[in-house]
Amino acid sequence: MSTRSTTPAAGAPLTSGEARTYAAYSKPLWQRVLLTREFAIIAALVAVYAFSYVRVENFDGPLTLYYLFLDVAPILLIALPMTMIIVTGEIDLSVASVVGLSSVLVGILHVDAGLSLPMAALVAMTVGAVAGAVNGFLVAYVGLPSLAVTIGTLALYRGIAVGLLGTEAKTDFPEKWTDLAKQRIVEGQPYPWILLVVAVLAVVFAVLLHFSTFGRGVFEIGLNDEAARFSGVDVARTKLVLFVLAGTISAFAGVYYTLRYGSARGDNATGMELQVIAAVLLGGVSIFGGRGALHGVLAGVLLIGVVTSAMRFNTDLVDKIQIVVGVLLVLSVVSPSFLSWASGLIRGRTGLRSRSTAGTGKRSLP
Amino acid sequence: MSSATRVLSHVVRSRELAVAVVLVALVVVTTLRNDNFLFSPDGWRNLLLNPSMLLILAVGQTAVIITRNVDLSVGSTLGLTAYAVGKLYTTYPDLPVVLVFLAGLVFGGLLGLVNGVLVTFGKVPALVITLGTLYIYRGIFLSWAGSDRITASDMPRDFLALGTKQVLTIPVLTIIALVVLAAVGYYLWTARGGREMYAIGSDPDAAVLYGLQTTKRVLSAFVLSGALAGLAGVCYAARYGSISSGAGRDIELQAVGAAVIGGVAIFGGVGTVWGAAIGAVLLTTINSSLPILGVSDFWQRAVVGALILAAVVLDRVLSARQAKRLAAEREAPTDPPPTASPTRQEVPA
Fold this sequence. Notes:
The structure holds 2 protein chains of 2 kinds. Chain A is mainly alpha-helical. In chain A, 67% of the residues lie in helices and 1% in strands. Chain A has one domain: ABC transporter involved in vitamin B12 uptake, BtuC (Orthogonal Bundle), CATH 1.10.3470. Chain A has a two-stranded antiparallel ribbon with strand order 1-2. Chain B is globular, with a radius of gyration of 21 Å. Residues 340-349 of chain B have low confidence and may be disordered. Classes of the chains: A mainly alpha, B mainly alpha.
């Protein structure tokens, strides 16, 4: 199955691994690569960036990109495992709560218990992995709906974080570490160190999702978990691994978040789960599972980041950021079914009938 | 089994009763610790008044979840409507209260209609659409309000009095919530439209094949949820008198949580508004009783989370047991047991 195109067209029958289907070869390669959701998002990102650079005052300043990267880094990090989870047709709403919990743990362990910062971070990430494992166990092995489970753990993990620290904030972090979180790779360039971590993890996740047996399994689970099981994919273990990855990386993002703002609070990163999910869906991942690609997701996160930071330069537009993000999200998910409806209308006139592309994959989320 | 005993055994085994028992136990234990919790006039009023808004939201949310959808935008709808009501009063200070409630219902209903149209005609999961409109409605609220906030002085006295007024010691807002609960509960229980919502949630494809008007029903569930969120927004304005741009933030997950605790299955077709309402009361009561029980109220969210998880696990255990019993009754143990879960049972290798 490794030769299967990553952009299966409508109802392409994939009978065997080497099957040359009409749909997969009906267009030249450059069209199949470039005329995709992912490249539409990348094009939008480039267009918005270019527009902002030319037209938005002060956007071309030296600090804009730097702060943009600092701000989107946690979302970029969490979006990586979230993409894989959504591709399997599940969802994890508890990631932001794990960020908060890990932030609180780092604060308590380092400031109060006197652990060294790497040790505290390690403990926090272990707790994050356990938190993810709880989600994964309940979803994969008990078979509960991930939406309900992670709404529960969203409240539970955030509750533990707030319960441990109350409304207090731990701010006593050594400058060595808080500076490191904001350190640039090359002085004078707008690229902070964290971007390197993001890049390495992005490559790892891209290999894992798009170029490994495990990743093929992830897509197959999203398309049909029963068929995946029969073709030898360990469905439950795959899902467990993904949730553990999401927990661990969220905890790492929590450590970064704490150091970047120099403050550990129980309500850190509240609501970030929705930002992450919005970015992943904007990046072309199907909420039904079975479809999506990491380059689209990265572009989706950056697109929201650029739009947000460009609108911040105009005081009249600051309050409209959320409207734009929401409209982008709705448009990006409604447009495929609108387009297929429109193209169905056109083909209907020429006597051809096409099957709707909306709703590929199984439906495991409401 | 006679019908009377059947009804009785149904009630005893029902989820609503189980949650109600937990709620009563919580109230009793808290009252034993501090009898002001129930017997002081303030305690009694707060016990009834605090859950009223979440209860209204949970009722609307239940109708949506039963059709196998979800509405995450209710918090933003609540906030936006509350602000709109405040603005309405600053322009027309002499508006009768009934008209304001009506305006809130209609305004919320329109916002719900947008959700419904996008979900049914866009053929996209409600989770995504309502996540989008959560941002959009909140953004409209933010850009409309800016740093401006509505204060008690912007609204007439008799409207604000509704927020604290009591009839026979029962707060007016609670009565409104109970009327909504009874009406929607009765509709879902007996009316054709209500039963069709259950049918759609149980199996959307079968509902279409059977000839049910799924689009219309799902649309009306979203309109109902939006209208009730609007009503809750009017209640919010009356109760707190001060509306800033944070109004109703994060309440959508509480509403879903209340429904889940009350036995509404997230995959539709199962559950009642009675259960969701008791779940909503339980969630808010935990908030006020934890400090009295000696637990810092910072732990409230953790308790809520644990409750939701417990409810979901319990549902799975019960449905597995029922599936086993049904299989045994059919005297065909080799048949795969039917499962209440919509994800298909994994076949053992």
